[in-house]
Amino acid sequence: MENINLSQIAQLRQLLGDDGILTGNDCVRYECGARFDVGKAAFVLRPATVPELSAAVSFCVRNSIAIIPQSANTGVVAGSTPDPSGTQAVVSLERLRNRLDIDAENRSVHLDAGYRLSELNARLEKDGLFFPIDLGADPLMGGMVATNTGGARFIRYGDVRRNTLGLTVVLADENGSVVKLGSSLRKSNVGVDWKQLFIGTCGVFGIVAECVLNVEPVPRQVATALLVPKSFDAVLPLLKLIERRAGPSLSAFEGMSGNAIAAALAHVPRLKNPFSRREYPEYAILVEISRSWEGQQTESSIDEQLQTMLSELWDSNNELLEDVLVGPSHELWALRHAISEGVKAVGKLVALDIAFKRGDVMHFLKRMRTELPVAFPDVRICEFGHIGDGGVHFNLVLDRGSANAADPGYENRIRSLVYNIVVNEYGGSFSAEHNIGRKNQVYYDRFADDKLKRISAALKTVTSPSSLGVPVLW
């Protein structure tokens, strides 16, 4: 077996058991990413407890085996898959799922990193709680922490960083040191908040083994609508007006291009088409307001509140809205969540995850509709995004039959053009919430401040001096 020392395999099997290590063809599903990045693992380690994770990491460090931590492998930037060398060990967290303790009084949960988001929310449901990061994918909790996931309801609940109270982390040193950071306390100002070092850094400083998370009451009343703005210039004024009227009950303000909507409906025919009697609009906005309490007889229903608010907007600002479509929440969110897979099914996908100040989002999108076809005439823009927090999933699709679709250099030229505009002209980010990974390594090297790179390298030496994760931070 190439690149595998049989004696080492035997020793790891003793440490982790037969189910704790995979070799050969059994590794395939851990080597292929959600966006078709493919590598080759020396082997896959699947520890079932924190002590086993520590022992596995310690063994790899002492034997100079590079480690790639992997959660549910739903990432899109090649941050959790091995390179093609066949020399890296994938350490999967999928069996790390023994502890899930809910403290309903504290509105917190302490759980192992191998539980899926859907499993956590199913357990929380009986207490009327949920973890408020809304995603189209179903990742493991350790991966959500490592990438600092944002999601569609960021405008109300924030990202994973905002909802993380404590962590248990395994460091890539000779001992596989286990470090506990933070706790179930929301307030404790006794020194550096070290857990923040491991949130959003993709596992290069240490592997997240356990999480202590804040959870929120499940909304008891929800109302949604699709807004069709009269122009791109109307979107930000609409957001500001709705924020002013809805206040903290505004939980989502999601933009979707007509091309993205068309891709979702084509890919999932069972979805209800809210625009069935006319062509798709160039742009639509999914607005959601919600309340955490049951409806009271003395107050108007949340559906009435939304409809009244939109009617007032329609009457007083008729230069902003082209159309308003109020519909069942589950139907509108099903359309929104189907976009990611829909655009991937349309053709060769170049998925860019970018962020701006809120006031720059629509200006950028409007500009790209003019400039991008000049530079890349065979590219279709199918973006959607979290307009309320400035994040945009700037999806670009090429027909699979296009000669450029098979050319990696063509995709790199697209990325370079877009990222240069995003960073240098708008002061934006080339990675809003998907992190860096091998796909964005060159752009980290290009855009990150050299002094901060040196600080990152120093921190890496202190926390996990051995090869851990995709090496973007040193």
Topology, element by element:
Elements: H1 6-16, E1 21-22, H2 28-31, E2 41-45, H3 50-62, E3 67-70, E4 88-92, E5 100-103, E6 108-112, H4 117-124, E7 129-130, H5 141-147, H6 154-157, E8 164-170, E9 178-182, E10 207-214, E11 216-217, E12 221-229, H7 235-246, E13 250-257, H8 258-267, E14 283-291, H9 302-316, E15 321-327, H10 329-337, H11 339-346, E16 348-355, H12 361-375, E17 379-381, E18 384-386, E19 391-398, H13 408-426, H14 441-447, H15 450-463
Parallel strand pairs: 2-4, 3-4
Antiparallel strand pairs: 1-2, 5-6, 6-10, 7-11, 8-9, 8-10, 12-14, 12-15, 13-14, 13-18, 16-19, 17-19, 18-19
Please tally the helical runs, counting DSSP H or I stretches of 4 or more residues.
Answer: 15
For the record, the CATH class of the largest domain is Alpha Beta
Helical content band: 25-40%
Q: Which runs of at least 5 residues are low in confidence (pLDDT < 50)?
A: none
Q: Which sheet architecture does the biggest sheet show? A: 8 strands, antiparallel
Integer tally of domains:
4
Gross morphology is globular
CATH topological fold name of the largest domain: Alpha-Beta Plaits
Look at the helices and sheets and give the structural class: alpha+beta
Instruction: Give the averaged pLDDT, no decimals.
Output: 92
If classified by CATH, what would the architecture of the largest domain be? 2-Layer Sandwich
Q: Compute the number of strand runs.
A: 19
Distance between the termini: 32 Å
What gyration radius follows from the Cα positions, in whole Å? 23 Å
Determine the strand fraction and express it as a percent band: 15-25%
